[in-house]
Amino acid sequence: MLDFLRNYFYWILWCAGILSLFIFYLCHPKKIRTFLLGSSTGLCVLFLLHFFGERIGFSPELNLTNLLTCSIFGIPGAGILLLSQLFL
Question: How confident is the model at residue 18 (pLDDT cuts 50, 70, 90)?
Answer without folding.
Answer: confident
